[in-house]
């Protein structure tokens, strides 16, 4: 199927959903004609209120009741959340050759519909429908109450309907020829299938993301989609048809139950996505908790008393929806830029929900595009929030990268010497202790001191002395392996921790360093200075008792032995104490 054909089918489906055939009205009588196969019954209804709900069909059809049928709606009748029982009278004359017609009340949540068709002998054929009876007992298996009407060609018949429901009493009633009815239902299920398919794909995809990213916001987003999906499955009658067809008690409460559940999911998601924490927004955070508690209480009340739970949920819906928008604006103004996506997505859903709610309550006329406005809004919300989550995750990752970079920089500054950029004494000690904990290898400590450094400071000044130390630090860094730890001990003293290195290997490395430094010109401004160092070496004995202090003490004694021996040389510490065993000059 091409894209053009697909959208063409959708346009046809919308036309079939919204349109109805014309008919000639004669004194309130619906006249079926050959040029029309679908009729909106609203202009031909006469409605009466049964104040006690005790009328029988004989009373409703009697001459005394005729005067009670005073309400003649021009559009789809919608009496909101009314508990009153209403009777509807329809007079139909069939001027076509078709005898089989289908009468549909396209509002699934109606609790009880009793159809009475007057016969020629004064009797009435009775058919009962609605979700107050198991789905399998419906004469036609359809999500909306639908019945067959046998209308004899050329004759006029009267149809009575008794309507009773605890929810919204909306009565979008149509009369169809069988072929048109079948085409319309196919179009309706096509549109609903597209909606449910999109919601299922978004939910499944984000479940994978939630587990892979371990993001609480993604789990709440999945919670919103799943609860919204169940809400509309219940509202459209699909759940009653396919999931719980015999659960009459539960089906009657499922819409309000999932409405409350979807609001709990929305509150949890909003609190997480908008970063409403107790520390940053104490009062706002507590209001979120309170509203979640209110919705949980509504769900419990609903299970005990449907009518009370319905009233509570109707009053809480508007408050919660507006509160969430206010919280999003506050979060945006506090600097949370992804909140823009939330405002846009939740705003689209809220607009659709308000239109649908006002339609259910009877404040605005019932039209198909208004009935399904909340579903269209929920799809927009799901898509926009998915984008928003992606943007939020990107923002969090960027913030995390900045935080890690700042942490690494802080750690580097804490572990580094300000002047030379080498590691400081604390870091070298920590590296030594970690190496001891790992064990299994030799390790040596090299301690070196710049010869006659005081003369440099006295002759050229401390700034020149600092430049010499920085130059020497670069030479040291370039002279050792990446795994060796080069640090500044203090003043003009440096240390090198040589891992996996015994005393002989450390001695050869020290001799190489002496020659490198001796040959290295130290160009400081206009001056060219020569520099030498004295080096003391101590090897770790390989026992936990031989800690850094002991090794440093031996290396320090070896360093002073090198200085006493004439400087510019290497001395090694003996194993037994602090005396030097070997000394050499390169």
Descriptive overview:
The structure is a single chain. This protein has 586 residues and is of the alpha+beta class. It folds into 3 domains: 3-182, Immunoglobulin-like (Sandwich); 215-405; 425-584, Reverse transcriptase/Diguanylate cyclase domain (Alpha-Beta Plaits). Helix content is 52%, strand content 18%. The protein has 17 helices and 19 strands. The chain has helices at residues 3-18, 57-61, 63-66, 178-213, 216-235, 238-242, 248-273, 282-304, 306-333, 339-361, 368-371, 373-415, 425-438, 453-460, 462-479, 503-519, 548-564, and strands at residues 24-26, 29-32, 38-40, 46-50, 85-94, 100-105, 112-118, 124-129, 146-150, 156-164, 173-176, 443-450, 485-490, 493-499, 522-524, 527-529, 533-539, 570-573, 580-584. Strands 1, 2, 4, 5, 7, 8 and 10 form a 7-stranded mixed sheet that branches. Strands 13-14-12-17-18-19 form a 6-stranded mixed sheet, with helices on both faces. β13 and β14 form a beta hairpin. α4 (178-213) runs antiparallel to α5 and α10 runs antiparallel to α12 (373-415). The relative contact order is 0.06. Mean pLDDT is 82; it is low at 1-27 and 576-586.
